[in-house]
Automatic annotation (TrEMBL):
Keywords: Methyltransferase, S-adenosyl-L-methionine, Transferase, tRNA processing. GO terms for molecular function: tRNA (uracil(54)-C5)-methyltransferase activity, S-adenosyl methionine-dependent. It comes from Zhongshania aquimaris. One of its GO terms (biological process) is methylation. It catalyses: uridine(54) in tRNA + S-adenosyl-L-methionine = 5-methyluridine(54) in tRNA + S-adenosyl-L-homocysteine + H(+); uridine(341) in tmRNA + S-adenosyl-L-methionine = 5-methyluridine(341) in tmRNA + S-adenosyl-L-homocysteine + H(+). This is tRNA/tmRNA (uracil-C(5))-methyltransferase.
């Protein structure tokens, strides 16, 4: 069986239905009518991963239906993947099938691409990789002009780079990002640029005040927004993302950002002067005049302490990958703030998932 995950002709109706459902979820909060940003109907996903299913002397890409997890669904074409992944898939598979040493006990293939054309492929095995594998894999990487990582239990062989380089065009400016294998990146590149542009438009120019950003990742929002503030204080707990963020600040010649590897709970304690942290020895928190806060939390949304923290600031940009947890958090935040703008970004077409953006302003007391 082959898989066709998209109904291209029906995409407008699918998006309308999803928009109606998401809007209804927030009906009790009287939000403004959302601005809806559709995805490209095909070739929008910059990441993809497949099992490699072996059948006699050859193998093919496969996915699995959760209802029948032991039955592979053959994938010869995957039109939701970026054009570069889509084009590479059959070429890579043919070369893997031709070379036993590369396909032997290979059970998963992961693709990471960029809008600017860079490509990283991770080949994951149930066997230890040796020098013969490395020689053949290096030849393959050269032939296909890609980066390759070989993985097996307690083994990682990086042939070239373990990251791709993205170039994003946003509002006439260009930004460069190192995006690491295993690190979080937005899967829908074009809508990611749209989200950043939307956030920039909401906050406007603030040359005399500062931005606080929680869950900043690799600097995806941080770098473009930094030009609109005096300084930025950002936090992130992932080591990989903090490493990438520092590199990306340097790549974009941005010097007005301080990034802290700490949780939102820890930052709350520090801002409230409840605890001191060695990680803050070089940071003068009192020097910040924070007018805006941006949060882009994981699917679980904000914890109680973080909701309390951000409710203390006048203006909030909340980017959410879960409408349900956003709704929960807004039930609290709208006790003190009004929602000035609401946006839906269809990062995940043909699924029930929707990325949301909300801009809140502290309510002026009568």
């Amino acid at each position: 069986m082959n898989i066709n995950p998209v109904d291209i002709d029906n995409y407008p109706n699918i998006l309308d239905d999803k928009t109606t459902r998401i809007t209804a979820l927030f009906s009790d909060l009287a939000l403004p009518k959302p601005t809806v940003f559709p995805s490209e109907p095909t070739h929008y996903r910059l990441r993809a991963e497949f099992r490699l299913w072996h059948d006699k002397d050859s193998a093919y890409y496969a996915m699995f239906d959760p209802a029948e997890p032991k039955t592979p669904i053959r994938v010869d074409q995957f039109s939701v993947a970026s054009k570069s992944i889509f084009d590479l898939m059959p070429v890579l598979l043919e070369k893997l099938n031709r070379q036993v040493m590369l396909s032997k006990r290979l059970f998963q293939v992961e693709f990471l691409s960029t809008l600017s054309g860079d490509m990283l492929v991770s080949l994951i095995y149930h066997r230890r990789l040796d020098e013969e594998w490395q020689v053949l894999a290096e030849k393959l990487a050269s032939e296909l002009d890609i980066q390759i990582i070989g993985r097996s239990k307690k083994q990682k062989l990086v042939l070239g780079r373990d990251y791709v380089v993205e170039n994003l065009a946003i509002d006439g400016e260009h930004y460069v990002y190192n995006q690491y294998e295993g690190g979080f990146t937005q899967p829908n590149g074009k809508l990611n640029a749209t989200m950043i542009s939307w956030a920039k438009a909401q906050v406007g120019e603030n040359p005399d005040t500062d931005l606080l950003e929680l869950y900043c990742g690799n600097g995806n929002f941080t770098i473009p927004l930094s030009a609109q503030f005096r300084k930025v204080l950002a936090t992130e707990i992932s080591k990989t993302s903090v490493k990438a963020a520092h590199e990306n600040f340097a790549l974009n010649n941005v010097t007005s950002i301080d990034i802290l590897r700490m949780s939102s709970e820890e930052l709350t304690s520090a801002l409230n002067k409840e605890r001191s942290f060695r990680r803050l020895e070089h940071i003068d928190l009192d020097s910040y005049d924070i007018s805006h806060v941006l949060v882009d939390p994981p699917r679980a949304g904000l914890d109680e302490n973080t909701r309390l923290l951000i409710s203390g600031f006048d203006k909030i940009v909340y980017i959410s990958c879960s409408p349900e947890t956003l709704h929960r958090d807004l039930q609290i935040l709208t006790k003190t703030h009004d929602v000035d703008a609401f946006a839906l970004f269809d990062q995940f077409p043909y699924t029930h998932h929707m990325e949301c953006g909300v801009y809140l302003k502290r309510r002026v007391k009568p």
